[in-house]
Design a protein that fits this description.
60% helix; 6 helices; mainly alpha
Length: 87
C-alpha cells in the first residue's frame, strides 16, 4: 500500500464517504489547515472529472497539472490523447 498524505479530516467526517469522497474531503481539510502541498497530494489520488482537469490546465497550466501528478485519464478519454498539450 502507498503511504497516504497527512490526514486532516476527523474520522467521524469520513463516515459514509466513498474513497474518492475521502480524498476530496482530505484535500479540502488540508487546504483549510494551510497545507496546500498536502492538499494537492490528496487531489492527485482523486478521480477528478474531465472538466475540472481542463479548468486546472486553463487556469494553472499544463506543467502545473503534470507537476502535481493529477490523474488525467478522465480528460484523456473526454478530450483525446494530447489534450494537455493542445492550445
Amino acid at each position: 500500500m502507498t503511504d497516504l498524505p497527512k490526514s486532516y479530516l476527523p474520522a467521524d467526517e469520513r463516515e459514509g464517504l466513498t474513497q474518492n469522497g475521502i480524498y476530496l474531503a482530505e484535500a479540502m481539510a488540508a487546504g483549510e489547515a494551510g497545507n496546500d502541498d498536502t492538499s494537492w497530494k490528496w487531489l492527485a489520488l482523486a478521480d477528478l472529472p474531465a472538466y475540472s482537469l481542463m479548468s486546472c490546465k486553463k487556469n494553472l497550466g499544463a506543467d502545473f497539472v503534470r507537476e502535481r501528478g493529477l490523474n488525467t485519464a478522465p480528460a484523456d478519454v473526454e478530450y483525446g490523447p494530447g489534450w494537455l498539450d493542445a492550445p
